[in-house]
Design goal:
The chain has helices at 5-11, 25-33, 47-57, 104-115, 140-153, 165-174, 190-200, 211-223, 238-254, 275-285, 298-311, 344-357, 373-378, 384-393, 396-399, 415-421, 437-444, and strands at 64-68, 71-75, 93-99, 119-121, 124-126, 130-134, 158-161, 181-185, 204-207, 229-232, 264-268, 288-293, 324-328, 337-341, 361-366, 404-407, 426-429. By secondary structure, it is of the alpha/beta class. The protein has an 8-stranded parallel sheet. The chain has a 5-stranded mixed sheet with strand order 13-15-14-16-17, sandwiched between helices. Bound molecules: iron/sulfur cluster.
Length: 445
């Protein structure tokens, strides 16, 4: 558990020598507790105190990183149970599972399709993170060939799945020099798997059929020097997985229970109750660090990528676009100026509707601190004065010959004030919903 400022102070030399740059040891301790100073700034702290303080400074859920050829996925290092308390930091990796019993050509085709899949969501390019290769055959040669087939189609990080150390060793040889997630160790094979993880400097997933078994195994494996561990709690049904994932997160955060202070790997199989999409959605929302899907289908992956983005967005910092005057479909000086706020989802809803209609328009995005139209209006961040300021600030009058400004229908109430703020401009009230904009532009403008 994190130490308080007073607990840290008791471990410091208490000489107030100021060498750390702070006037007293207590002031330095308070900064350390707030994670605004580094322990190394005090040159006089004893080795014993250093060890205690370093351990206390470790995150309650270890950060585990998977890398391959410029791709990187970091999971863990979370500090809260609920995103309204602070935020979730490291998005869970989404992986697609392939099996070594499938023909190499099928594997390559599946992986290539999933690897090239991209979603553009409110200006962000979203994609999958990697592939999990499972040794269903039990044959080292088949496993190695399947991994090579995956590598031929994708450079993304890998998870290798086998409980047989000999098979796993063959798989690791197929991608010599890489450090995939080894999945994994259990009560019967943990020494051999830990040795492979140590040799390949790779993180190791640990399977326990109960939390007690899992905790016991991670403690034993840590003693071998393998520190980057991932937890597989063994539950595959919705209810049992939710309970175990919540228990692990609570124990790690609330009790600082180090044996379970690691990211979780969740498996969302096609035969999961409710289907893999429901299982994966639950895993994303409730604490998984890696989510392995049984198959790739855009209609499943798209909502999961968007869900993940929404859950890992800081609720106190909405996704914003840059306030500016945007051109849609090469507008001329005759075309209308549409007004909206800089909340990303609002901006892209409006921009996408107009763009797909083929109608040209200017889109004036005002700085409403990332809020949607109605929220910003209610908060006083989207009013006639701000809109007029944006019109002047972005020199809109220089771009158009016909001065027509279209307000969102939800803020029709602003039209009178805006006419006063912008003499010479024709203020029109548009529809409430972006989807109705093209029809409005065709008929009313
Ligand atoms: S350098 Fe160390 S001993 Fe000196 S004031 Fe800072 S914390 Fe105290």
């Amino acid at each position: 558990m994190a130490l308080s400022g007073i607990q840290i102070y008791k471990l410091l030399p208490q000489t107030n020598c100021k060498d750390c740059g702070y006037p007293t040891c207590l002031a330095f301790a308070m900064k350390l507790a707030a994670k605004q100073a580094e322990l190394s700034s005090c040159p006089h702290v004893s080795e014993e105190a250093k060890a205690q303080l370093s351990e206390a400074a470790e995150p309650p859920i270890r950060l585990v990183t998977l890398q391959a050829d410029g791709h990187e996925i970091k999971v863990g290092n979370e500090t809260v149970l609920f995103r309204h308390e602070k935020k979730f930091f490291n998005k869970p990796g989404l992986f697609i599972r392939v099996r070594d019993t499938d023909p190499a050509e099928d594997i390559r085709a599946q992986v290539a399709a999933a690897d090239s899949y991209r979603v553009n969501y409110v200006g962000m390019a979203l994609s999958l993170d990697g592939f999990a290769v499972e040794a269903t055959s039990g044959d080292p040669g088949a496993f190695a060939s399947a991994i090579s087939a995956v590598r031929a189609a994708s450079a993304r990080p890998l998870i290798l799945i086998s409980r047989d150390p000999a098979v796993m060793a063959a798989g690791l040889r197929a991608i010599d020099g890489e450090s995939p997630l080894i999945c994994g160790a259990d009560a019967a094979n943990w020494q051999a798997m830990a040795e492979l993880a140590r040799q390949h400097n790779a993180p190791l997933a640990v399977l326990g059929n109960s939390l007690d078994e899992l905790a016991e195994l991670t403690e034993k494996i840590k003693e071998t020097g393998v520190k980057d561990l991932v937890l597989d709690h063994g539950a595959r049904s919705l209810g049992a997985a939710l309970i175990r994932q919540t228990q692990i997160r609570r124990l790690a955060l609330k009790q600082n229970f180090r044996p379970l202070g690691f990211p979780i790997i969740a498996f969302a199989g096609n035969d999961a109750p409710g289907g893999q999409a429901v299982m994966a959605a639950q895993a994303i929302a409730k604490y998984a660090g890696f989510v392995v899907l049984d198959s790739f289908a855009p209609e499943t992956v798209y909502p999961l990528l968007v869900l993940r983005e929404n859950i890992y967005t800081d609720p106190q910092k909405p996704i914003q676009v840059q306030p500016a005057l945007y051109e849609i479909n090469n507008p001329s000086p005759e075309d209308p100026v549409l007004v909206t706020t800089n909340f990303s989802i609002t901006y892209f809803s409006v921009a996408n509707e107009v763009e797909s209609s083929g109608l040209p328009a200017w889109l004036l995005v005002t700085d409403a601190e990332g809020m949607s139209v109605l929220t910003a209006w209610a908060a006083g961040k989207f009013d006639a004065e701000r809109i007029a300021k944006a019109v002047k600030g972005f020199n809109v009058a220089d771009k158009v010959s016909r001065k027509r400004l279209v307000l969102p229908g939800h803020v029709a109430v602003l039209s009178g004030e805006l006419e006063e703020e912008l003499p010479g401009w024709e203020i029109r009230v548009g529809p409430r919903e972006a989807v109705d904009l093209p029809a409005f532009m065709k008929q009313a403008l």
